[in-house]
Amino acid sequence: MASIRSRVFGAHVRPLQLDLADLSSLKTAVDRLGLDHLDVVVHNAGVALDEPPRRETEDGHELMFGTNHLGHFALTQWLVPPAVRGVGGPQRDGGKLRGAVGATGPGRSAVDPGSPQPFDFRPSPPGLRPARWSYTFESEAGGAAGCALSRPPVHAPATHRREGAPMKVQGSVAFVTGANRGLGEQFVRALFDAGAAKVYAGSRDPTRVTVPGAVPVAVDITDLESVHAAADQAQDVTLLINNAGLSTRADVLTADLDSFRLEFETHVLGTLAMSRAFAPVLGRNGGGAVVNVLSVLSWISITASAGYAAAKAAEWSMTNALRVALAEQGTQVTALHVSYLATELAAKVTAPKSDPAAVARATLDGVEAGLHEVLADDFSRQVQAALAVGPEALYPQLAGRH
Ligand SMILES: NC(=O)c1ccc[n+]([C@@H]2O[C@H](COP(=O)([O-])OP(=O)(O)OC[C@H]3O[C@@H](n4cnc5c(N)ncnc54)[C@H](OP(=O)(O)O)[C@@H]3O)[C@@H](O)[C@H]2O)c1
Question: InterPro entries, alphabetically (predicted)?
């Protein structure tokens, strides 16, 4: 709001609470506007989910379809009477809309576009995933509007998947940093369960590595000498898991800058140093893969852990660059985004936490599927989708503030 007002002199802007996924709420939202007439509607909001499983709105529609398509059409239905008044003048006052929807695609025969069905926003029956939806709206005043939307087949090869043969965990030789506890330890266990041939367990204190069969290696990722010594010792690695991390809980206003420095030294520079030291090793061994353990806080910050979030955001950016740079040599780079895990790092957090063992398994599945990013929980998926909407979607406390 403040940004619009600063750029558009004299703009009258006011917020409207609107949930496109809640079809039954849209009329009330429009009524609340109390519009006499309307000239332009810009349908901009949308949801983009990367991965099945299917998610549904309260009304039982597939979430993206229900929000991006049905939500906008329902909103149009309630907005068009004032829009007709705005464009057509008083003689068209009260132009009421009827709508129609048809679906064509596998599993359903084409609906004759000339004889539309009543538009009632019914969810598609289970199993029906039409490849093409069409809509027709007719106003009693004689106007008509139509639209045809194509949706990609649900299992189409997605752009977020890497081309080429994905990494196989079975038979791989892995190196995990921060492997003496928490998520790192669970990665070591999950790697063995998935058939890894050898697992190097990197730790600042290798005597604390407890998983049977793992090869303990001393490594402090903030110490270049130690990083190079580890790479020299593990020349057969095909899968590098940059897991080591910490949280200083550095507050954005009050924490000393050294806390911020330590976060960046560890998450950004430490991970970069490991990736650079192991890149030639991976290249020589056929390409392989790198996993960078990021966070949902790469995409959303909290003031009380601003140092951590800033470092994870920078690590995300660095990971994106690494993915592009290493694609040349056939090395896959997978980022893990996850919110709270039940580990020491989040010991003081009382919010729900994911099981690190399950997250480690899901990440390895993502690696084998050739994913660029693994989003391990709903919150990470929601935050990623909200990024496209803007700060007010991520930080509700900003709503209505200038
Ligand atoms: N826990 C969460 O809620 C959460 C959420 C999202 C992402 N993550 C990320 O998940 C990863 C693992 O964290 P965790 O939850 O398992 O935390 P954790 O239980 O505290 O384990 C952190 C591990 O990283 C190691 N480490 C820290 N600094 C290091 C350094 N300079 N060199 C080498 N090892 C170092 C620690 O070694 P020491 O034992 O020697 O300290 C420990 O093994 C981190 O990248 C973290 O940011 C965690």
Answer: NAD(P)-bd_dom_sf (IPR036291), SDR_fam (IPR002347)
pLDDT digits (tens, 9 = 90+) for 361-376: 999 999 999 999 999 9
Kindly list the distances between the CA atom of residue 391 and the CA atoms of 284, 300, 301, 385, in Å, as whole numbers in the listed order: 43, 9, 11, 12
Q: Is the pTM of this model over 0.70?
A: no
Selection from 100, 102, 139, 141 nearest residue 119 by Cα: 100
From the CB of 357, is ligand 1 less than 6 Å away? Answer: no
217 in Cβ contact with 235 (< 8 Å): no
pLDDT digits (tens, 9 = 90+) for 122-133: 333 333 333 333
Q: How would DSSP label each residue in 118-171?
A: E---PPPPTT---SEEEEEEEETTS-EEEEEEE---TTSPPTTBPSSPPPP-TT
Does 181 contact ligand 1 (Cβ within 6 A)? yes
Report the alpha-carbon distance of residue 357 to residue 355 in Å, rounded: 5
How far is it, in rounded angstroms, from Cα 351 to Cα 306? 18
**In terms of CATH architecture, what is 173-387?**
3-Layer(aba) Sandwich (3.40)
Q: Which atom of ligand 1 is nearest to the CA of 180?
A: 43
Q: Residue 340: CB within 6 Å of ligand 1?
A: yes
Residue spans of the domains in the chain: they are: 16-156, 173-387
